[in-house]
Amino acid sequence: MSNLEITIEFGGGAELLFDNKKAHNVSLPIKNKQWIIGDLLLWIKENLLKDRPELFLQDDSVRPGILVLVNDADWELMDTVNYVIQPKDKILFISTLHGG
Amino acid sequence: MTSQIETLKLEIIDLKSQLLQKELLLSQLQEKNEGFNKYSESLSTGEVVRYSRQIIMPSFTVDGQKSLKNSKLLIVGVGGLGCPAALYLAAAGIGHITLLDYDEVELSNLHRQILHNEFDVRSNKVDSAFKKLKRINRHITVEPINIHVNSSSITEIISKTKYNVVIDGSDNVATRYLLNDVCVLNKIPLVSGSALQMEGQLTVYNYNGGPCYRCLFPVPPPAYTVTNCGDGGVLGPIPGTIGVLQALEAIKILTKTPGVLCGRLLLFDGSNTTFRNIKLRPRNKSCAVCGDSPTVTSLIDYEQFCGASAHDNVINIDILKTNQNTDIKSIVNAKNNIIIDVRPKIEYQMCRLPNTTNIPLNDLKKEKHLDKVKDILETSKETDVFVLCRRGNDSQRAIVLFKEKFSSLPINFINVSGGLHSYSKHVDPSFPAY
């Protein structure tokens, strides 16, 4: 079996925590259980997020003010951290803006 | 020459105010004179001609125009979003537009807050906007309210006028929660926009069974994660685009046109000119304010709730001992001292004092830069090293780091109080206080 290939995207300023890069094509290693977004958050923390994790994560989820979107839909519509990631999924983490 | 400039400025203000009075009087007289139009039941001759290009659309019609004419709309924040939104809404013929803002026009607003011009600098934003909007459309009522929006002021404003739509063009988290709650409690749709740097976001809350702001964000973001336009920067057309779209959504709501952006979030990325439409969660039945058994049934203290103030002005800090601070004037006389400017490189490139060295605060946080910083510090001929920034806050934070990282060096780090703003104010006004 091959790895799980997905695209992780960041926007609204969240990309600043990830080398200012908005899209990351990543290959998640196959493991015994299925990949859920909860696992992905830990993977991001270990592999993409270099410093200041508190600006992105809080407890076992994203920090307040960040929306998570799976293929352009709110992750609340698909069981949030428990969503089972599918090949070619686009998972977007967007920080909400407040300026005007 | 300076006195001639000041005299001219005053004369122009006086002439403009006379002109405005006469224009308002003229439009009142014209409005009366025009009176009844025997060719149309609801609109004057001038109105029919003016609005004809939108009325003749099958999706709009004269009923749409009548709806706009009978509508009352509140715009909170007459800035980067509020200006373009107000411009299009006034031009479209919304019968009553209330403008709410506490702020004055600054030179650094003009690149995006397009209702204001050079002559408006230091006048109230709402008065400045009022003058422009009245000249665009004399058929409508524009009500400027120069007040800081909070739980008590918004309650009074909402109780006086029954608004059909509220436009959120504010610039801070506390005001966004406040407007959400007041709109939920009074059953008013909220057209919410925001912008920063190259990105904008837009959605309509509390409309047609869709979610409210609290459904999406039950918990406010930690204050240290929030960036404002004054620190992060913003390109003018970004709030311009979002503000114009806020006007569009408001018009659709007021004319009961389908396709309103509720239950969806528009993400605009100006860096590659992409628009993404995100499907949002439905209304949350356990939402604190719009849920089935709400816990928020009246307005609360939103600054306390968010742990942040309801404006985007910088809060000054004071974290050093008194003897670690000095007046801006002492660096003017400094001959041999090293003066370190800790602003980001981009800001240092924009404007700087001579004989200063740029060591950005963020570099001090990264180990890889510290050797270079140490080399610079070791060239110091004096024990006193001055640390400088835009307003005197980051320089204090930098000193804490300097002392931590370079405790072995025989250096006394001194904070320049008030930073470059103070330099511009007390030493040389030609230094740009941005």
TrEMBL record, chain A:
Keywords: Cytoplasm, Isopeptide bond, tRNA processing, Ubl conjugation pathway. The keyword Protein transport does not apply. C-terminal thiocarboxylation occurs in 2 steps, it is first acyl-adenylated (-COAMP) via the hesA/moeB/thiF part of the MOCS3/UBA4 homolog, then thiocarboxylated (-COSH) via the rhodanese domain of the MOCS3/UBA4 homolog. It is found in: Cytoplasm. Acts as a sulfur carrier required for 2-thiolation of mcm(5)S(2)U at tRNA wobble positions of cytosolic tRNA(Lys), tRNA(Glu) and tRNA(Gln). Serves as sulfur donor in tRNA 2-thiolation reaction by being thiocarboxylated (-COSH) at its C-terminus by the MOCS3/UBA4 homolog. The sulfur is then transferred to tRNA to form 2-thiolation of mcm(5)S(2)U. Also acts as a ubiquitin-like protein (UBL) that is covalently conjugated via an isopeptide bond to lysine residues of target proteins. It comes from the Eukaryota. Pathway: tRNA modification; 5-methoxycarbonylmethyl-2-thiouridine-tRNA biosynthesis. It comes from Brassicogethes aeneus. Belongs to the URM1 family. InterPro entries: Beta-grasp_dom_sf (IPR012675), Mopterin_synth/thiamin_S_b (IPR016155), Urm1 (IPR015221). Pfam families: Urm1. GO terms for biological process: protein urmylation; tRNA thio-modification; tRNA wobble uridine modification. This is Ubiquitin-related modifier 1 homolog. The modification 1-thioglycine is found at residue 100. There is a cross-link at residue 100 (Glycyl lysine isopeptide (Gly-Lys) (interchain with K-? in acceptor proteins)). GO terms for cellular component: cytosol. Gene3D superfamilies: 3.10.20.30. PANTHER family: RURM1 PROTEIN.
UniProtKB/TrEMBL annotation, chain B:
It is found in: Cytoplasm, Cytosol. It is an enzyme of class 2 (transferase). Transmembrane segments: none annotated. It comes from Brassicogethes aeneus. The active site is at 229 (glycyl thioester intermediate), 389 (cysteine persulfide intermediate). Keywords: ATP-binding, Cytoplasm, Metal-binding, Molybdenum cofactor biosynthesis, Multifunctional enzyme, Nucleotide-binding, Transferase, tRNA processing, Zinc. Its main location: cytoplasm. Gene3D superfamilies: NAD(P)-binding Rossmann-like Domain, Rhodanese-like domain. Its cofactor is Zn(2+). It comes from the Eukaryota. Binds 1 zinc ion per subunit. Its EC number is 2.7.7.-, 2.8.1.-. This is Adenylyltransferase and sulfurtransferase MOCS3 homolog. Zn(2+) binds at residues 212, 215, 287, 290. GO terms for biological process: Mo-molybdopterin cofactor biosynthetic process; protein urmylation; tRNA wobble position uridine thiolation. Pathway: tRNA modification; 5-methoxycarbonylmethyl-2-thiouridine-tRNA biosynthesis. HAMAP family: MOCS3_Uba4. Residues 333-432 form the Rhodanese domain. Plays a central role in 2-thiolation of mcm(5)S(2)U at tRNA wobble positions of cytosolic tRNA(Lys), tRNA(Glu) and tRNA(Gln). Acts by mediating the C-terminal thiocarboxylation of the sulfur carrier URM1. Its N-terminus first activates URM1 as acyl-adenylate (-COAMP), then the persulfide sulfur on the catalytic cysteine is transferred to URM1 to form thiocarboxylation (-COSH) of its C-terminus. The reaction probably involves hydrogen sulfide that is generated from the persulfide intermediate and that acts as nucleophile towards URM1. Subsequently, a transient disulfide bond is formed. One of its GO terms (cellular component) is cytosol. In the N-terminal section; belongs to the HesA/MoeB/ThiF family. UBA4 subfamily.
